Amino acid sequence: MRRLVAMMKDIRKDGLTRAYLARNETVPQERLAEVDSKFKFLDDNLNGVMADGASERFMEVMTSADFTYAIQEFVQRKALPGYQRKVFNFEPLVKPDTLPNYLPVTRYQNRAGVDDLEYVGEKAQARPGSVDDATKRQYQVYRWEKQYEFSHEALVNDDLGYFEDLASKMGEAARRTLEKFVSRMYTNAVSIAALVVAGALYAQNGRLTTARVSECRMAFNQRTDARGEAINASLAYIVHHSGLKDTALQILESTQVAELATNAKNIVSFTPIEDPYIAGAAPNLPWYGFLDYNAAGIVPFVLARRQGVPGPLILRRKSDIESVTSLLGAGAAVDPIWGDFASGNIVLKVVDVWGTYIGGAGIGNLFDIRGAYYSTGTAP
Amino acid sequence: MTMPTTFQEGTNWQQSSEPFLAVDVQEQDCWPVDTRSESGAKDQLAPGLHPVVAIGGVTAADGRPLNKVGVVVSYAGAGGGVATDRVEINIAEGTIVRQWVSNIKTYAGEAPATFESTPVLGQPVYVDDSADLSAGVTLSFSALNHAGTKNPMAGVLWYCQDEIADGLAGGGRATSTFDLALPETIYEQEYCIMLCQTAQEVL
Q: What's the 3-state SS for A50-77?
């Protein structure tokens, strides 16, 4: 404070000197002495040495509240991190395929062996056998897109970087959409109906328990080919509603078959996969059984992608603006934030390409019904 | 029933990327907005609000119902119904926007008489300045307002992008979820509207 007062004194004296100098005069000494006197009065007060001065020294009286604008308004804005998305690891359930273009492709699979041998008598001829026709499956890929359009002003004004993670969000949206797409392959009503109509070896109503998992396993063990011959099929994955996560883990951890009230060793083994997109209300939560398509040659579902598009692409409409210094001179590219010439809009879209087998009534999306098992989860 | 007192807001009002043809209009030339409606107390334009409005005179003598109709894209001004505020309006036919629509179909004796209970895709909707619409609603199914004056056609009902069936490609909707049923009483609901004024001249 003393420094401020001293500085004010010097400024006042300098000001007086300049003012008189402008009139070609010399500043009177009494004017300068007056300034010194006033400074001394203030300075003595500040020092507390004034004999008969104020009982209290001058003190700072300025508070934050005195500054309505400069220091009173507290401005802090920041964007908090968004939610973490729940991931559905569907990859083990769908056999990947790559298609060259958007046209339907055809896949053939021989789903039966040939005839058993027959006894023939002496001098007899063997009777003719037969070979089954292939099972024909056709599918194609489609584009899945979403477009976002921002004004130039919105992006410039975004001092928080609110839109900065938009690209990653768009990528996440593509993944999430694909996860829902895969989930729908078995949760859609047509696929479920196909399993239910196939009978007890393909569907049941029981809630997820050790015994029900065993029933599912036994059902897979009884799978047969197109001619009714036994084939290798074993339960590998239990896909369940999110509400069954603990149940699935408990079944895996159990050392006994609780439902049988015995201490028999738990032989249930499977890999649980949580599907957050399965709908259901506790306690009636559905679950599904699938096999490993790599091990058995039985493909429950296919997920086709187009060649050259293994994942989502984020595309931006190229700005049609260039900056110039003369009407016909060469132009230079400008930052994308200037958007398009007409409106200043910045346009983005996320693109992905995928598809699956869509068989219609009686089949749904099941490439091969032998690879799937369904339970409504309604029966206690 | 929902009675919005605020014009269409939020970030999902835009349902088509194209076409786009923006024109500058002054606030005082948009209706039904602010005092320029039968109620005299319509919502006011503000940044972030996107109503479908008619542009020009509100009386038959001024050319109604042959007004141009569009959707407010952006608004720059102090609000409060300042007549010279600048409004950007997309007047491109074929633009699809989400809007509040009243189910009033006809008026009798200056009161709502019949209501559209079975709306169908492609059904015309009109800019209606009647006081029976909430302050945030500018559209109804009525070709005449409650005073019997012809309303400008705004467009036709259309699918929102999340209403059209996509089961063909493995999407989640085997059929359209376009709402085909409304109550037989006065009711306001969000629908998507494709701006088009093909019937304007024959009115």
A: CCCCCCCCCCCCCCHHHCCCCCCCCCCC
Beta carbons within 8 Å of A67's beta carbon, 6+ residues apart: none
Reported in sequence order, the residue ranges of B91-138 that DSSP labels E, i.e. its strands, are 96-102, 104-108, 111-115, 124-127
Nearest to B170 among A147, A343, A355 (CB): A355
Cβ proximity of A283 and A231 under 8 Å:
no
- CA–CA distance, A268 with A265 (Å, rounded to integer): 9
**What are the beta bridge partners of residue A355?**
A304
Sorted by where each begins, the domain ranges of chain B are: 22-198
Average pLDDT over residues A133-157: 93
Q: Enter the DSSP assignment of A244.
A: G
Alpha-carbon torsion A202, A205, A210, A215, what sign? negative
Beta bridge partners of B106: B114
Sequence letter at residue A113: G
Question: pLDDT tens, B49-58?
Answer: 999 999 999 9
How far apart are alpha carbons B125 and B141 in whole angstroms?
Answer: 5
Mean pLDDT of chain A: 89
Tokens of A14: 């300098």
H or E element that contains B154: strand B153-158
Sort out which chain A residues have CB atoms less than 8 A from B17's CB and list them.
Answer: 147, 149, 347
Strand, coil or helix: B130: coil
Number of alpha carbons in the 13 Å side-chain half-sphere of residue A58: 15
Contact B179, B104 (CB under 8 A): no
Q: Is the dihedral of CA A192, A371, A376, A355 positive or negative?
A: negative
- pLDDT score at B203: 47
The pair of three-digit structure tokens given for residue A341, joined into one six-digit string: 């010439």
Contact A286, A296 (CB under 8 A): no
CA distance B67 to A341: 29
Cite the beta strand spans of chain A per DSSP E.
94-99, 105-109, 135-139, 142-150, 203-206, 235-240, 271-274, 287-291, 301-306, 313-316, 322-323, 332-333, 346-355, 372-379
Is the pLDDT at A277 greater than 80, yes or no? yes
Q: How far apart are CA A95 and CA A80, in angstroms?
A: 39
Burial code (b: 16+ CB inside 10 Å, e: under 16) for A118-143 equals eeeeeeeeeeeeeeeeeeebebbbbe
What is the residue type of B178?
F
B16 touches chain A (CB under 8 A): no
Q: And the tokens for B153?
A: 């056609």
Size of interface A-B (CB pairs under 8 A): 24
CA distance A186 to A183: 6
Q: Which residue numbers of A have CB closer than 8 Å to B's CBs?
A: 142, 147, 149, 151, 180-181, 184-185, 188, 343, 347, 355-356, 358, 365
